[in-house]
Amino acid sequence: MAITSPNPLTVLIVDDQSATRVAVSAELDRVGHRVIEADSGEWALELFIRYRPDMVLLDVEMPVHDGYWTARAMRAAEPGGWTPILFLSQRDQDQDVWQGIDAGGDDYLIKPLSPMILHAKLRAMQRLIGMRQRLLEMSEELRLANAQLQELSSIDSLTGLMNRRALDARLHEEIGRARREGTPLTLVLCDVDFFKRYNDSLGHVEGDGCLRQVARLLSEACRRPSDCVARYGGEEFALVLPNTPRSGAMTYARTLTHLVTHAHIAHPDSPVASHVSLSGGITTCVPDASTTAEGLLIRADDALYTAKAHGRNRFFSYEMLLDTVEQRELLRATPKL
Question: What are the DSSP calls for 204-238, one per residue?
Answer without folding.
Answer: HHHHHHHHHHHHHHHHHH--STT-EEEEEETTEEE
